[in-house]
Specification:
It contains 17 helices and 14 strands. It is an alpha/beta fold and 482 residues long. The strands form two sheets. The protein has an eight-stranded mixed beta sheet. The longest helix is centred in the last third of the chain and has 15 residues, at 411-425. The radius of gyration is 22 Å and the shape is globular.
């Protein structure tokens, strides 16, 4: 998946500079942006009590005071039609609108993107689908605020450059809207806490639309894990290893250099969600277990500079950039129950696409890319088994939608279908703001850990103790439609 959305970078900032100039200036400044001044703190203590209940309790005690009631187990309001507003109509948003339009009981009522042509193209898709013409918002970077103020929007979907995700999620909730945001949901720990608090205060759900949780393999492994096929779970791994060099230097793919510029700012795992989300589901993170701390290490930053040297003319603006993002970041995350999760991030070197997607327990292991499995007593003699033989364990969503439309092997459609279903039927969503904050927390924390030479960083308990309660998630039962 590419998080690849459009916001024009030439719109003026309050000081008269264009957003493009501001981003480039910030990029050249490197890591000294003060983005993570709040940090996690307590790294020595976290190292001493790693993986213990004491570490989990200490982190909970350090959480800011709750401003509202928990959102754990809170259902959506039941409605016959879900009215959707979409912010960001670039590569991701411009394709996801097709899936919203393909689902019965969903109406796209408003669209926003400062690039007018993209908004017009998306609006044409809405009318071609037989729905009324949507309202459009194209007047600058902040016109999304007017979309969020509408009284006929139930759910706001944001697919924009990462810098905007926090502000858009916040604005949507403050205007009484449920909101789903592409990865990552925010970039700072204080922002993650603010989204948690806002969700609790406004009683609106704020979700990380982490589509890989709904992949066919991921959902099959999830059901098998919950049925005990892997025994007692011990370890897992996930990644975003995806060669994006060509796309990040392509002036037409991303709207400006926003994604590449993050490689001039941080050294950590910029995109942990695709790998972290599924493994967190397998281990029931925030549903009986929780992650307590993370240790990260990064390689030198060489890949983007070498690619630029080989492919970009000396006149290209990218030559003003200094890359500090590790070509490969490797993180180890431990849970309160002592389990270990390995996360990797690499978008700057040549290699085949892989999310790793590994799960191991006392009875065997699954590894993806390619999919293979080894379970006792089914397999023996150190020979991998055929994962296709376990198709009976497919989730009901994949049995009901065996050949779903859309990209990423259909997982995008499954995610949107299920989210819209929970909204129409008034069900508890499969994931919530606590999952969003947890899955995104490696962004700032891995950066801090690498700067501290791998020292563990405490991962906040965003649930404030609610993780101890076992509850449902993506491994859902098929609901009645009545």
């Amino acid at each position: 998946m590419h998080d690849n959305e459009s916001t024009p970078l030439d719109a003026p900032e309050p000081d008269g500079r264009s957003r493009r100039e501001v981003l480039r200036t910030a990029g050249v400044a490197g890591a000294g942006l003060g983005l993570f001044a709040l940090g996690s703190g307590g790294t020595a203590q976290a190292a001493e009590s790693a993986g213990t209940e004491e570490a989990a309790a200490a982190s909970t005690a350090a959480a800011p005071a709750r401003q509202g009631e928990t959102m754990i187990g809170v259902p959506f309001e039941r409605r016959s039609t879900v009215r959707v507003g979409i912010i960001g109509l670039g590569n991701r948003g411009g394709s996801m609108i097709d899936l919203f339009l393909a689902i019965p009981g969903v109406q796209v009522v408003a669209l926003c993107d400062p690039v007018k042509e993209k908004t017009e193209k998306a609006a044409a898709k809405v009318t071609a689908a037989g729905q009324p013409a949507p309202a459009t918002y194209t007047k600058g970077d902040h016109d999304f605020e007017n979309l969020c103020k509408r009284g006929d929007v139930d759910f706001v979907y944001a697919a924009t450059p990462w810098d905007w995700h926090f502000e858009m999620a916040k604005t949507a909730m403050l205007n009484g809207k449920h909101v789903g945001v592409e990865c990552p949901i925010a970039l700072q720990l204080d922002q993650l806490w603010e989204l948690v608090d806002l969700s609790e205060r406004t009683r609106r759900h704020c979700m990380q639309l982490e589509n890989c949780c709904y992949g066919r393999n991921e959902m099959r492994v999830l059901r098998m894990a919950h049925a005990g096929k892997f025994g007692r779970l011990l370890h897992g791994a996930g990644a975003y290893n995806h060669d994006l060099r060509g796309l990040m230097f392509d002036p037409d793919y991303y709207e400006g250099p926003w994604r590449r510029l993050w490689h001039t700012r941080l050294r950590g795992d910029l995109y942990p969600n695709h790998g972290f989300g599924p493994v967190a589901n397998y281990m029931d993170i925030n549903r009986g277990d929780r992650v307590t701390h993370i240790s990260s290490f990064g390689t030198p930053a060489l890949g983007l500079a070498e690619y630029r040297e080989a492919h970009m003319p000396k006149s290209d603006p990218s030559w003003k950039e200094t890359y500090i993002e590790s070509d490969r970041t490797i993180s180890l995350v431990q849970t309160a129950k002592g389990r270990v999760i390995r996360l990797e991030h690499d978008v700057s070197t040549p290699h085949p696409y892989s999310r790793i997607n590994q799960l191991g327990g006392t009875k065997g292991v699954f590894e993806d890319y390619p999919a293979r499995i080894y379970l006792e007593p089914d397999q023996s003699n150190d020979a991998w088994g055929d994962f296709g033989q376990y198709a009976d364990w497919d989730h009901w969503l994949w049995k009901e939608h065996a050949n779903p439309p859309g990209g990423h092997g259909g997982m995008d459609y499954i995610m949107v279908f299920r989210l819209m279903q929970t909204m129409r039927l008034g069900l508890v969503p499969d994931f919530d703001v606590y999952d969003a904050a947890t899955w995104t927390s490696p962004v700032p924390l891995s950066h801090l850990s690498i700067k501290a030479k791998g020292a563990p960083q405490a991962i906040p308990d965003f649930t404030r103790g609610g993780w101890r309660e076992e509850r449902g998630g993506v491994d859902s039962e098929k609901p009645g439609e009545a």
